[in-house]
Amino acid sequence: MPRINLLPWRDADRKRKRQEFLVGIGGAVLVALLLGLMVKFQLQASIDQQNARNRYIEEQTSELDKQIVEIQGLELQKQRLLARMEVIEQLQRSRPGVVHLFDQLVRTIPDGVYFTSIKQTGGKVQLMGVAQSQTRVSALMRNIEASEWLADPALEKVETKGANDSGAEFVLYANQTGVGTESEIVAPRKGANQRPKRAGVAQ
Questions:
Q1: Three-point CA angle 106, 139, 127, nearest 5°
Q2: β-strands 124-131, 150-160 pairing
Q3: Is residue 108 within 8 Å of 145, Cβ to Cβ?
Q4: Within its chain, how far is the Cα of 48 from the centroid?
Q5: Residue 114: which H helix or E strand, with range?
Q6: CATH of the domain at 106
Q7: Who has greater pLDDT, 181 or 66?
Q8: 150 - beta bridge partners?
Q9: pTM score of the predicted model
Q10: DSSP letter string over 183-203?
Q11: Closest C-alpha to 177, from 139, 126, 124
């Protein structure tokens, strides 16, 4: 029987298998690299998309902040306009009250008394003036008590100006009925040594 040498065939088969193994490993590495690159590109695309969304949200937030500032400015202007309208309405409502106040002051002031200052805050009226004597001040308080538009006179102070009966300075408070607004009316102050000559409000 002839003898067959199988060594060359075995070596060739071994080399072929080794080459196939190396090719398989190379292919696997290449596939892994391709998958890695694909995942990286996909992640980068997602990151870029999210960054674009974040920038859009920031831009919209900035625009909303500007609109909020504008709305707050408009709200402040609205409040100022409403406050001015309320003041105007109060002045319109207080106009008849001021007319009645001056009318009652003219009616209630006795001879020998004049006012140097008249101040109204809400329904309270402060009267400052000079009278020939304290008796005149008492007469003024009685007239206010009997008045139709003034009530509750309260004397804060009365001071005699000199030893020669030159007059008495007084501060008197009264309530004006039916008045709920604020206004201020101030008459010019006369000289300290001037004696009252006639009844009326100082001019």
A1: 55
A2: unpaired
A3: no
A4: 44
A5: strand 113-121
A6: 3.30.1360.100
A7: 66
A8: 176
A9: 0.43
A10: ----PPP--TTPPP-SSEE--
A11: 124
